[in-house]
Amino acid sequence: MNFKIGFGYDIHRLAEGEELWLGGLLIPHTKGSVGHSDADVVIHAICDAMIGALALGDIGSHFPDTDPQYKGIDSKVLLKHVYELINSKGWLIGNIDSTIVLETPKLRPHIDDMRNLLSSILTCDVSQISIKATTSEKLSYVGEEEGVKAYAVVLLQK
Ligand code: MG
Q: Which residue from 74, 110, 117, 129 lies 20 to 30 Å from 82 (Cα-Cα)?
C-alpha cells in the first residue's frame, strides 16, 4: 500500500499573558494558548495525524508533557522530529488539510505564511499544505474565547 491517512485534533486553553503560536507563527493577540510546549494546536494536530497515519501512537507518547525537555519547546522542533520519523520509514507528505477554530483574531493575513513555513519544514510544496480558519460562531468555550482548537488530516505517500 503506497498511501496512509491520519487524523489529528488538539485543543488548548487561552489566557492573558500567554503567547499565541499557530502554524509555527507568533500571532499578535491579547490572549495566548496555555500548554507545556508553545501550545501550537495546528502543529500538534498535524503531528498527531502524521503519527496516526503510521499507527505509531500519539504526540503524547512521543513527547510526554511531563518531560522537562519539552517545557516551552518550539513545536516546529517537534514537527521536524515527526517528519524525520515518517521519513526514516520511507514516507513523504502527500498533502495536509487542517482547520483552526478560533474566535479572534482573524487569521487570514497569516495563513500563507503558516503554509510556507510548514512546507519548508516538511520539504514539500506549499500547494500540499492547506490551512483553513473558522470561528465557533460565539458558541461554547471556543466561541467565548476560552480556547483554540485545530483538526488535521494528513495523507502520507511512499
Ligand atoms: Mg497540544
A: 110
